[in-house]
Design brief:
This protein is of the alpha/beta class. The protein has 5 helices and 14 strands.
């Protein structure tokens, strides 16, 4: 694992640029420059595993211990301390427990908002990560997700390419995303100003940042600069600033206009008091390790991308840490 180490939030201005570059990805920082908590309360993040995120060769979980990943290893330091193909993401956040509290929404647990009987009710969390859902959200779940965002929650939705129905139930993550955007009971008129395209991009790399994106906190964040990504069976998004003027593309496919409304690979927007990030491929967050029997690839550390930085800076931004 690349093991990205977050820059100390309150010490950055006091450190030389060369020292930052030397420590940003070099293992655990010395005690004298240990990361300093920015938040007075923990940011609570819920990773979803209730919508077939482990169907087929997918293994998009941070740990097999659910809902509490720390029951598998209470002090993880490497991705294999937790079992799952996105454990690198979880472990990186877990190393800064003063900032982050992590849970998994376990299989069989529907999304709710405002329920007093659901321990993983969305009102209990600041950030919701949905990594390539393969079963459709119910109407009630779509309403719960949108209410969560409207009331200040951060949604990180990762989808995959067209025709990526891993469990053969007739819908894939592209369908599921567009259903959320158009039929949710809160705002059915393109609420984020972003819709998913029906594409199947086999393999390419891109460093085509959106116009003005270089200063966005997801790009220029505490975990390092996110400025490129791999696409390995991917789709893109279409933007409509007339539907939502805050819709913005941070990273486009290579070779397309970096100020256009199509070909966007990583998009951000706001809705109500909340924030959203949409990513058009699950391959970049795959850390290459997980449950036995799955064919996995290490996109998290692929040198053609800064995929860890996108995920981690993005979590910070959604949790209002940046």
């Amino acid at each position: 694992m690349r093991n990205p180490i977050r820059r100390p939030r309150q010490l950055v201005t006091a450190l030389a640029a060369g020292a930052l570059a030397a420590t940003a990805f070099g293992g655990v920082l010395p005690a004298t420059t240990a990361p300093t908590a920015a938040a007075t309360t923990q940011i609570k993040v819920l990773f979803d595993n209730a919508h077939a995120e482990t169907a087929g060769n997918a293994d998009w979980i941070i740990s097999t211990s659910q809902p509490n990943p720390f029951a598998q290893n209470s002090a993880p330091t490497k991705e294999t301390d937790w079992t799952g193909a996105i454990s690198a993401w979880g472990v990186a956040l877990a190393q800064y427990r003063t900032d982050y509290y992590l849970d998994t929404n376990p299989s069989g647990r529907a999304f709710t908002y405002g329920s007093t009987t659901n321990a993983q009710d969305l009102s209990n969390y600041d950030v919701l990560v949905i990594p390539e859902p393969n079963t459709a959200f119910t109407a009630a779940e779509r309403t719960a997700i949108m209410t969560f965002v409207k009331n200040g929650g951060g949604l990180f939705l990762i989808i995959d390419h067209d025709q990526s129905d891993r469990n053969n139930d007739g819908v894939d993550s592209v369908d599921i995303a567009n259903q959320l955007f158009s039929s949710n009971g809160v705002d059915n008129t393109d609420p984020f100003g972003i819709t998913a395209a029906y594409q199947n991009i086999s393999s390419e790399d891109t460093a085509n940042l959106g116009a003005g994106a270089s200063t966005h906190p997801v790009v220029a964040g505490a975990w390092g600069t996110a400025n490129k990504s791999i696409l390995r069976g991917a789709t893109t998004f279409n933007l409509s600033t007339s539907a939502n003027p805050n819709a913005k593309c941070l990273l486009y496919r290579a070779g397309v206009s970096n100020s256009g409304s199509t070909g966007c690979f990583i998009a951000v927007s706001t809705f109500g008091s909340g924030r959203v990030i949409l990513w058009g491929d699950s391959s970049p967050v795959d850390d290459g390790t997980g449950q036995s029997g799955n064919t996995l690839y290490n996109g998290w550390d692929d040198p053609a991308g800064t995929d860890a930085e996108w995920a981690l800076n993005g979590t910070d931004w959604l949790g209002n840490l940046s």
